[in-house]
Design brief:
single chain, 125 residues, mainly alpha
Length: 125
């Protein structure tokens, strides 16, 4: 085989699968919308968790230090505790901030065409 026999350019694209039937396509779209909605809800809850973590750490700093938990390791463990607690609070409903974030992000995603309009409605949890 010589260099002249080699194809020039990129390889041809692979064969694409046939489009599913109309009903299957609608089911796939609905499933993707639910997956997008779940991911957006989790992102909003995670964001609220970060804010709650900051709030809890600031509240903990208002308590006078008794010297019992003053080492670097105990401060790190406390920070991990506040982070875990904030995540649990947010996943259990939190302060409700995640709902407003979700609605705003879903609306912005629907307007940008990145999220199906069905997901821009009230979160279904």
């Amino acid at each position: 085989m010589s260099a002249l026999d080699l194809p020039i350019g990129p390889p041809p694209p692979p064969e694409l699968p046939a489009w599913p039937a109309g009903g299957a396509l609608r089911r796939l779209t609905r499933a993707e919308t639910r997956r997008d909605e779940a991911a957006l809800i989790q992102a909003a809850k995670d964001f609220e968790s970060v804010l709650l973590h900051q709030l809890l750490e600031q509240m903990a700093q208002t308590v006078p230090d008794a010297g019992l938990l003053s080492s670097a390791m105990s401060r790190q463990v406390q920070s991990m505790f506040w982070s875990h607690l904030a995540g649990e609070i947010a996943n259990q409903g939190g302060m409700g901030l995640w709902k407003g974030l979700y609605e705003q992000w879903a609306r912005a995603g629907a307007e940008a065409g990145e999220l199906a309009p069905a997901a821009a409605k009230e979160p279904s949890e």
